[in-house]
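In this section we walk through a basic example: taking a raw amino acid sequence and producing a predicted 3D structure, encoded as discrete structure tokens. The instruction is simple. Fold the sequence below.
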Amino acid sequence: MAEVERPQLYLVTPPEIDLEIFPDRLAAVLDSTEVACLRLALAGKDEDRIARTGDALREVAHARDVALVIENHVLMVERLGLDGVHLTDGARLVRKLRKDLGPDAILGAFCGRTRHEGINAAEAGADYVAFGPVGATALGDGSLAEAELFGWWSEMIEVPVVAEGALTPEKVAELAPLTDFFAVGEEIWREEDAAAALRRLLAPLG
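The resulting token sequence is shown next.
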């Protein structure tokens, strides 16, 4: 049996960022482990704050050859010199944005727990599809993206899949053979030492 490739790591920023502190915290995590992509996922719509944060994080990420995508704010991609966009509303805008942003931009879509939405996003030109939450959380309606969904996707669809939302070491162990990426955010940023928290979370990967 062929060896299953180890899933890659996809980091997600916290919704609130202190620019005095966070770039150094981010740099420490990026220097401690290999990260494929970083998502800027700020809460709110303060254009100036998003732009300043994007500039600061782009410097940290690009200095380490890590791609930086932004959540939903499509017009910021070109303006801030980012690598693409992560859409949180499934497949709806994927086809249009693929045309607008061109073939080289990273275009990802979060599709909740919906196989059908994921297929639509993949067919419309998404570079990856994310499903979640995979772990128990008080947010949302309590339903989860189950291992079965990731197993089916890995077998049937070539577009990479991302597992995200309330990850635990147990979930990492369960989903490692079935997913291409783990998206990790609040799980580590709420800890004092984010790099150490990440090591604990990903320990099952060996």
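Looking at the output, two observations stand out. The mean pLDDT is 96. DSSP finds nine helices and eight strands in the chain. In the next section we compare this with other chains.
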